[in-house]
Design a protein that fits this description.
This protein is α+β, with helices and mostly antiparallel strands and 109 residues long. Helix content is 39%, strand content 11%. It has one domain. Strands 1-2 form a two-stranded parallel ribbon. The protein starts with a helix and ends with a helix.
Length: 109
């Protein structure tokens, strides 16, 4: 994860490591609230994950792939090089506009 941090201006590795201490103060929330890789996704028809290959949170892709496979969820993973965290919601370049249009097309179905 630290190797990815250099390419991610939005999410630092130290922030990701702080999730555990932050979640200790949340009380009795379900596990999936504390970290989405331990959630129950059964019943979802389809889910899409968009990551910048160089963003700090890309370390979680293998965990998400594993849980989606274990729970028989039709999941697609899109990793784009040299992008930024949450790039599909900021359609400021070709790659982010493509992802944005892809999400909108899916939602319109």
């Amino acid at each position: 994860m630290e190797m990815l941090e250099d390419g991610d201006a939005m999410v630092s590795a130290s922030f990701v490591y702080s999730f555990e201490s932050i979640s200790e103060h949340w009380g009795k929330h379900p596990d999936w609230v504390q970290h989405p890789t331990v959630g129950n996704y059964r019943g979802l028809k389809r889910i899409r994950f968009y990551y910048a290959s160089n963003e700090t949170l890309a370390f979680a892709v293998p965990s998400f792939k594993k849980i989606m496979q274990e729970q028989n969820v039709d999941a697609s993973f899109y990793l784009r090089d040299h992008m930024f965290h949450a790039f599909p919601v900021y359609p400021v370049c070709r790659e982010s506009r493509e992802a944005y249009r892809d999400i909108l097309a899916y939602l319109r179905r």
